[in-house]
Every structure is written in structure tokens, then in C-alpha cells.
Amino acid sequence: MENRRKNAIDAMFSFHKAFKDNKDTDNTKVTEKIEALGVTDKNFLIVTRDIKDIKGVYPVSDVISDKLTLADLIMAYHLYLKELNGNNTDKRLISQINKFYKIK
Questions:
Q1: 3-state helix, strand and coil shares in percent for the chain, rounded to the nearest 5
Q2: CA spacing 20 to 30 A to 98: which of 1, 61, 81, 89?
Q3: Among candidate residues 100, 4, 73, the one with its CA nearest the CA of residue 92
Q4: pLDDT digit of tens for each residue in the chain (104 aa)?
Q5: pTM for this prediction
């Protein structure tokens, strides 16, 4: 389970790097990795995907942990959705996601 979660987070991180560098942001790999998640992880993403303020509902952090918890997966997914539906000139969004992934 941990490996599938790591793979999904890694795919979302790669998407973020391409997004902020204004490169091709094909989300096929992210979709594949999310589909490969365990049932519980996938269900949490499905149930929470339309929640605008995830922090008000689930204890997520502004910074990813080293343990790659379910909370990390949920926050990475919500940030990914913001990028998918946003634009790469939104400096606040890019800054928020850089902070989450600990990018200086």
C-alpha cells in the first residue's frame, strides 16, 4: 500500500514540477497511479475531491511528511486538482504547493 501511495504522490509531484515550469502537464500518469491505489485510499480521494476546504474536514498539513500518510495523499491530491483546474501564473498556488513538497 505504501508503495502505491508513494507512486501516486510522486506522479502528482512530477505534474507540479511540469506545471510550474510551464511544460506539458499531461495527467495520464497521475490518473494511472491513482487508479492503482488501494480501495481505501481511492475512496478517500473520491469522497473528498469536491470539498473546497479540506483542512476544515480532514487533518492535513501544509507540508508533506516523510511517512506519506493518507493525509499527505489527500493534500497532494487536492493541490493537484487546484493545478489541474488553475493556471500556472498563479504564484500563490505555486508557492503553496512548493511549500507542501518542501521546494525552496
A1: 65, 0, 35
A2: 1
A3: 100
A4: 579 999 999 999 999 999 999 888 889 999 999 999 999 999 999 999 999 889 888 999 999 999 999 999 999 999 999 999 887 788 999 999 999 999 98
A5: 0.92
